[in-house]
Design brief:
Number of domains: 1
Bound molecules: NADP nicotinamide-adenine-dinucleotide phosphate
Strand content: 15-25%
Distance between the termini: 22 Å
Strand order of the largest sheet: 3-2-1-4-5-6-10-8
CATH topology: Rossmann fold
Helix content: 25-40%
Structural class: alpha/beta
CATH superfamily: NAD(P)-binding Rossmann-like Domain
Order of helices and strands: EHEHEHEHEHHEEHEEHEH
Largest sheet: 8 strands, mixed
């Protein structure tokens, strides 16, 4: 995978998003970081990546941004429960809720994507198929799992080659106080092995580092095209994660 690739990372300033950007840069891939806040992204990425300003809730901010992107990795998200992150109201006076970001926003991004896109990688969530079971019924009190599932459905129906990654409760980071150089130097790796599953049966925790690893590694393997999988950390971590073998299970 070389420099002909331009990877659009939506939610690039978030916990997983920052790690995705740093892992793409390690591979010398060109990155376009999508953010609502140019100053925040400039400070974080230190001119190492191109920055585009856009808001998933406004389709017209996405049209230009998606042009030329060969892959999109969508790491956007908001809080599952009401918080100050919801306070970012749009012109229709809608808050930045899961329904606006994970459902409508993802739909807008899918619709703006180049029809020849090589891959649309989406971070969803464990529990989307178990919304009535504890603890997911609590997590879904304000509709975050409904919205993630809506996002998944739109992606699957789009005809774009996709990979949907469903982590469990995220641990490690977000590294919001780090700059990119610290992230690159950190070379942190999750402390436990990676376990991948299908059919939404896994429970546990997932390192943001391994979610980012999976987002980038899946681009190397056609076996992950049009696949959906869960990812958690459990057991003793091997010296090197064998993504090819893990992905062969899906
Ligand atoms: N937390 C968990 O336990 C958990 C569990 C399962 C799945 N997930 C999912 O995992 C992913 C990564 O989580 P994280 O905690 O690393 O993310 P995060 O730190 O909360 O970052 C989310 C990013 O989304 C961007 N964003 C929010 N609203 C937006 C909008 N309207 N338009 C464009 N961008 C917007 C923000 O970027 P700007 O402010 O720069 O625009 C922010 O950096 C998310 O999809 C989350 O839903 C989380």
């Amino acid at each position: 995978m070389g420099n002909k690739n331009l990877v659009l990372v939506a939610g690039a300033t978030g916990g997983v998003g920052q790690l995705v950007v740093s892992k793409l840069l390690e591979r010398n891939m060109s990155v376009l970081a999508l953010t609502r806040n140019r100053d925040k992204a400039n400070q974080m990425f230190d001119s190492r990546v191109e920055i585009a300003v856009g808001d998933l809730r406004y389709p017209n901010t996405l049209t230009e941004v998606t042009k030329g992107a060969t892959q999109i990795i969508c790491c956007t998200g908001t809080t599952a429960f009401p918080s100050t992150r919801w306070d970012f109201v749009n012109i229709f006076n809608a808050q930045n809720t899961p329904q606006e970001v994970d459902a409508k926003g993802v739909k807008n991004l899918v619709e703006a994507a180049d029809k020849n896109l090589d891959r649309f990688v989406f971070i969803s969530s464990c529990g989307v198929l178990r919304k009535n079971n504890f603890p997911f019924n609590i997590l879904n009190a304000f509709g975050v799992l409904d919205a993630k599932l809506e996002g998944e459905t739109v992606i699957k129906a789009s005809g774009l080659p996709y990979t949907i990654i469903r982590p469990a409760r995220l641990i490690d980071g977000p590294y919001t106080s780090y700059d990119l150089n610290s992230l690159l130097k950190a070379k942190t790796d999750g402390k436990k092995a990676v376990v991948i599953g299908t059919g939404d049966t896994l429970n546990g925790e997932t390192s943001r580092i391994d979610v980012a690893n999976a987002c980038v590694a899946c681009l190397d393997y056609d076996t992950t095209i049009n696949k959906t999988f869960e990812i958690i950390n459990s057991g003793e971590r091997p010296t090197k994660i064998n993504w090819e073998q893990l992905f062969s299970q899906i």
